[in-house]
Amino acid sequence: MDWALLRGLDDAEQREVVAASTTRRYDRGEVIFHQGDPGDTLHLIASGRVAVRATTAAGDAVTYAVLGPGEAFGELALLSADARRTSTIVALEPVQTRVLRRDQFETLRQRRPGLDRVLVEVLARRVRRLSAHLVEALYVPVEQRVVRRLIVLCRQYGEDGDTSVTVPLTQTDLAEMAGATRPTVNKVLRSLEAAGVITRARGRIEVLDRHALRRYAG
User: Fold this and answer.
1) Same domain, 38 and 112
2) Overall domain count for the chain
3) What are the tens digits of pLDDT across the range 68-121?
4) Residues 35, 97 share a domain
5) CB atoms within 10 A of CB 93
6) 75 with 87: CB under 8 angstroms?
7) SS3 of 97, please?
8) Residue range(s) defining the domain that contains residue 168
9) Is 149 left (phi over 0), alpha (psi -120 to 50) or beta?
10) N or C: which end of the chain has fewer CB within 10 A?
C-alpha cells in the first residue's frame, strides 16, 4: 500500500513503520473515534472510506472530508502527549486500518531520526488544507463549491480513467462538505442532471461525465 503520509521516508523506514503498526477493522457506520476524545493513535487506511466530521458550537454536525485507501487520519496524535481528537471519524463502509501508537512512533524516531520528516509533513499538509478551505469559503460562490466537492468525491470513489463514477453519499453529506444548504445543493444537482452530467438516486449521486463536471467548477 502506498500511504501518502509515508512517501518522504525511504523503503526501510516505511517497512519499520508498517511493521510496528497493528491491523484494526471497523464495520460500516461504526465510529472510530469522537471529536474531543484523547488521541494517541495514527490510522493509515488500508481499505474502505471514512467520513471526517466536526460538531459546531451550535451542535450541528459537518462532514468536511472523505478519506480512502492510502490516506491517514489521527496524525496530530503523534505531535502531543495530551492531544485531543479534532474531529469524529465514521466508517462509510467496512474499513481496515494500520494503527500506530504515539509511544511506538517515539521509539521508532529514536532509531530513525528521518521520521521527523513525517511530523513536518503532517503540519505542512494541515496548513495547506486549511488555507485552501479558507480561501474557497471566502471567495468561491457556493454553487461552485458544491461542484468542486463533487469533483473531489469523484477522485475518491473513481479511478483516474473513469468517465462515470458512483458517489454513495447523500445530498445532505454533499451540503455539509460544501458549506451549503441542502436546497442549494438540490438546485445545483437539478441543473447538472438537466444537462446530462449526473443522475440522482436514493443515497447516491451518479456522475455520468466527469469532464463536463469539471467545466462547471470554474
Assistant:
1) yes
2) 2
3) 999 999 988 888 888 899 999 999 999 999 999 999 988 988 888 878 887 788
4) yes
5) 14
6) no
7) strand
8) 141-216
9) alpha
10) C
